[in-house]
Amino acid sequence: MNRNMKIYIKNKSKFALIGHGYHLNTLFDELILNKFPKPIIITHLKKYHKRDIREAKGIANLYKSVIELEKKTKVYYLKTLDSKSALSILSKNKVDYIFCCSGRFIFKDNIINQYKNKIFNIHGTMLPEEKGGGTYTYRIFNKKKFCAATIHLIDKGIDTGDVLLASKKEKVNGEILPKNFLIKTNKIYTKLIKLFIKKIINHKRFILKKQNPSKGFYLPRFYTDVSGAINWNWSGENINLFIKGCSTPYSGAFCFVKFNVKDIKVKILNSKFVKTKDFIHPWFSGKIINEDDINIRVLTSSGQLIINKKDIVFEKNYNLKKLEGKTFYNTHNFLLNSVNHAPNIFKFKL
Question: Whole-model pTM above 0.85?
Fold first, then answer.
């Protein structure tokens, strides 16, 4: 494929939307609004959607569930998808194009060949920067406050296909928390999807732009339940960034505290770092030195973390009435898993 290749997408063609999330529902609505044939949905098991709904509860403009589309179109909830069954579903529904939105499926060669230059993906970065998953979390770790999105072709690599459309980088307002990145990215998704549909209905061409692999990098999907273990040997600033990067709608960074000889798991959803030089020896790290009705103060090697008690969640509904004097910690095994990352819990194949 040469650098200046141009493609046209047939007007009123039928799409299969694969994945989940706000942007999938937005694309579905835009296709219907512009009188395209009703797209079908292929997505992962319903229990994972219910988890996403639960974690996004109370956050406006963050998450729309595929479950909401069940009364409007065919929705296929699949644990795994081999290439034969995938082609059967696509063929039976007379699908012309495939569009992925946060899809957790890996496309095999025969589907890529069958739908050559007809499989698109919308990715929440400006490629080739930030290929892979965990985008917002990794940005927060690095103190980056921008959002962007790209629509590109799917090829045999991960987020490496030619680019059709790309947004500009836009600054995130407010605190650097994943929910604020997601809300901003959803707005960018909407603008990019509307432009994508407008170009189709106006018979405009897409000029494909090849990605420069030397300008990008890849990082794997970040699973907070396993990789979110706080390392109290880090500096206070880095612990603070880690806690924020694992915050809502993700499950939260975690550690443990002793209670009646038991190790009680604690999830921390937000914090504030204050630099001090009062306690510099690493022995103090994780020690809770102060508690009032609203906050606790936790020592690190470079300062203190101020944590609102509302941002602390104990496992099994434990309610520790007094934390002052206790110590937050993590075991070697949890820290090792956090470094190595968890295996992909969605073992889907397409």
Answer: yes
